[in-house]
Amino acid sequence: MVDLKLISENLISGKAAKVKELVQQALSEGIEPSKILKEGLIAGMDTVGVKFKAGEFYIPEVLIAARAMHSGMEILKPQLIKSGAKSSGRFAVGTVKGDVHDIGKNLVAMMMEGAGFEVLDLGTDVSSDKFVDAVKNKNIEVLGMSSLLTTTMPMMKETIDALAANGLKGKVKTIIGGAPVTQNYADEIGADAYSTDAASAVDKVKALLK
To answer: Could you tell me the pTM of the whole model?
Structure first.
């Protein structure tokens, strides 16, 4: 039997081909898809998150590990759907209108997926209408917004106001982040949470859904 810890270890080292091979092997040995996800991929990404927060890993290592996770997920996803495995929640993320920075947003999307969430990546330069539409039509439980320019930060407030105007304020939780963003700003505009980095964002989102 394949040891699921091996999947975690290879994911942490960013060995995509090995992760893919081990996931395939675990499935062919009849191990439950949800068990492979939890004890292999999610466990690995959790460790990556801890190392990132501790300053032992930097963005390149996280991206390489996330790529390895995606290679395993490609094989696992159809099996998870078939087995009716429950996701951790539905999360949408985008960089606000006027801003095309995407590294932070991409990292958050990858870490969230690594934590077992269904992730809808709305991309960059996202208008408040597009955020609202996603929440309405895709049953989003938590909405993440990123801004790297002080000039685009007001778009976060505009989106939160638009959610309220559409009667969605209590139905969806909001989390914001990005270099110029602060906890004070999150409080000021009525965001439910603020995160300094991608690994912390996962913890904050989990807390919001409790």
So the answer is: 0.87
